[in-house]
Amino acid sequence: MPAPEVLLIEGSDYETFPAGGQLTMARCLIKLFGDRLALVGETAGDEPAGRWTKKEIAGAPRWFFPVHRRRPMARRPLIPARLRFYASVKRYRKEIESLGCRSVFLQAPEALMAVAGWNWDSLCFWFPGVENPLKVSRYWWARQFCQAFDYLMFSALDRASVVLAAADENAILKLVARSKGRLNRERLVGLPTCVDTTVFRPQPMLAARAALGIDPARTVFVNSGRIGRFKGWQLLLDALEEYLRKDPRALLLFVGDGEDRAAVEASIAARNLQESARVTGFQSPPQVAAFLNAANVAVFGSFVEGWSASMLEALACGKPMVSTDVSGVKSMVAAGENGFIVNGRNAADFAQAMDKALNLANAEKVSTSIAAEFDLPHLGASLGRLWPPLAAPEPAR
After folding, report:
1. Which region holds residue 352: left if phi is over 0, alpha if psi is between -120 and 50, else beta?
2. pTM across the whole model
């Protein structure tokens, strides 16, 4: 097993936690760069915390350093996960550096703040979303520290060799303005997320429904990804109630997991929608692809996004899409061709767009052609051009 060249540091186990776009991108990076990466994260397994070990991740043994063991909890932990990960990474600096990697790739602000002051040859930070994460924190008291968080994050970015952002130009300009002069627009390079089109691709709808036990006669809407407050699940349930007036047998599936899962399930019960909506829980990428292929339309009600990996996955499966107006969506939805962008958060407007999306004749062709622009080879080539540690190795002579 060759020595890795780059550390990837994430508050993740790189397999199931945390559900959402950052895990998706970590998987894509592992698939692209393989054993060139060593992984620092956390574990729910038997690996000893605070030591380098070899663990099978994504089908191959990887150098893996868990900074702590994560215990599944029904309630939110007393100490926020971001804060705990930050402290644990700082605690094990000497042990993490012992592997000898001199370059680091990060996409979590807490990881950036923990390691920015270490003696790196090169540091690349990629914003998966440009909003301050404390603005949507589950902890009311954490939301009081948004300004302090920004100050520390932008100060840490001074140490970065390359700064990337999965966001559109408007969102990038807002980030630059938020930095109050600490981050120049010239330093920030827009780089969208990507999709693995070998996993996410069109498959026959009836076959997918048969495999999943979904009635072929129902109209099915799917929302995939992390289930959190900022993902706007309440709007989707409101829109479903509106749509059910036209089609009482419609079904909305939340494919994923997250901190708001219990709240979503409680809301479904309170609205008496148990026959019309359900949460699947965490699914592997092939299972997510199966649910997407079983759907008529993919729906997203987010308040904020970076450049949504879940949306790209839906497009790669050829689905029409209805979404709120968030960063990146105008590059993924050609209105009236493969979906609709709903301005505002009116449930009736959203339900109307869901209905119209069912009748877009060329949606699959348009969606897959857009997704092809964001596939893994495009990401690998772009990262190699922008950050030398992940450039393609020189051919042997």
Report:
1. alpha
2. 0.84
CA distance 201 to 207: 14
Rounded to 5 degrees, φ, ψ at 218 are -85, 150
Query: Which H or E element spans position 36?
Result: none
Cα 227 off chain centre by: 11
Q: CA-CA distance, 329 to 306, in Å (whole number)?
A: 9
Strands (DSSP E) contained in the chain are 6-9, 37-43, 53-57, 60-69, 103-106, 122-127, 162-165, 188-190, 220-224, 251-255, 277-279, 297-300, 321-324, 339-342
Can you tell me the mean pLDDT for 21-47? Answer: 89
In the numeric block, which tokens belong to residue 219? 């109209």
Fold of 6-194+376-390: Rossmann fold (3.40.50)
When pLDDT is cut at 50, 70 and 90, the band that residue 394 belongs to is low
Q: Are 55 and 13 in contact (CB under 8 A)?
A: no
Is 205-374 the same fold as 6-194+376-390?
yes
* DSSP H or E run through 219: none
- Cα–Cα distance, 226 to 283 (Å, whole number): 11
- How large is the average pLDDT for residues 271-280? 97
Residue 299, phi then psi, degrees to nearest 5 = -130, 140
Residue 142 · residue 281 · CB < 8 Å? no
**Residue owning tokens 């990507």:** 194
CB-hemisphere CA count at 13 Å for 248?
1
Q: Which phi and psi (to 5°) does residue 87 adopt?
A: -65, -40
Rounded (10°) CA dihedral 347, 348, 352, 353:
-30
Helix axes 363-371, 309-316, angle to 10 degrees: 130
End-to-end Cα distance, the chain? 21
Answer for the pair 323, 299: CB distance below 8 angstroms, yes or no: yes
Task: Please state the domain extents for the chain.
Answer: 6-194+376-390, 205-374
For the cut 90, the answer to whether the pLDDT of residue 46 exceeds it is: no
Kindly list the strands in the beta sheet with 339-342, ordered across the sheet, starting from the edge strand earlier in the chain. Answer: 277-279, 251-255, 220-224, 297-300, 321-324, 339-342
Q: How many Å apart are CA 171 and CA 177, to the nearest integer?
A: 10
Residue reference for tokens 């605070």? 50
Rounded Cα distance, 175 and 168, in Å: 11
- To the question of domain 205-374 being in CATH 3.40.50.2000, the answer is yes
In angstroms, the CA 32 to CA 19 distance is 20
